[in-house]
Design brief:
This protein has 201 residues and is mainly alpha-helical. It is built from 10 helices and no strands.
Length: 201
């Protein structure tokens, strides 16, 4: 692991242990074994460390790996199901952190949220993510309607909105009510959702 990543991961680990985003450079130095001067070689100040952590572990977490979603194959039901399952998997697993084992990503989110929401572009990034998801699901629904796998008497926009609302509802339960597993919650709801939108003769 390179030194910069070591500093970031150990700072984040300290923030999680303290359940607080206030960590001193001295504490970071002790945790990493890097002198204070060595830390300032990579970061000009503590705020820069926080900003980099926020970008890496909060802003990047908000985004989806859309390439992975677009690689999914199958009929309309399989594509929608597998894409949504992958979305929940990405959110539940978070971003890999080498020095922190089996941490619930919600804890990281809680520690970073105050920083994340003050990050200058965070609201725009959230809007862009939703826009990207809408475009992605619109393509899937249009294709499904053309192939007579998804009902054609419902506007594409309404179906897309329903799918995104299902995703957001389950994510909300995971974030706020700490349900054990988003993917299980999704599986419990998917067949009902599909029944609403499947093609009818």
């Amino acid at each position: 692991m390179n030194t910069k990543k070591l500093i970031l991961e150990n700072t984040l680990k300290l923030m999680i242990e303290k359940q607080n985003s206030i960590v001193s450079v001295r504490e970071i130095s002790v945790a990493t074994g890097i002198t204070i001067g060595g830390i300032y070689h990579y970061f000009s100040n503590k705020e820069e460390i926080y900003d980099e952590i926020t970008k890496r572990y909060f802003i990047n977490y908000i985004k989806f790996d859309m390439d992975k979603l677009r690689e999914i194959k199958g009929n309309s039901k399989e594509k929608i199901h597998d894409a949504m399952a992958e979305m929940f998997k990405q959110k539940q697993n978070g971003i890999e952190i080498e020095t922190i084992d089996d941490v619930d990503y919600r804890i990281i989110g809680d520690v970073l949220t105050s920083k994340g929401f003050t990050y200058e572009n965070s609201q725009e990034i959230c809007k862009d993510v939703i826009k990207e998801l809408k475009e992605f699901f619109t393509e899937l629904i249009d294709e499904g309607q053309e192939n007579r796998q998804i009902r054609q008497d419902l506007p594409t926009e309404d179906i897309v909105k329903s799918l995104i609302n299902m995703y957001l509802g389950i994510q909300y339960q995971w974030d706020i009510y700490w349900i054990d597993d988003m993917i299980s919650a999704f599986e419990d709801n998917f067949d009902l959702e599909w029944e609403k939108i499947r093609f009818r003769e």
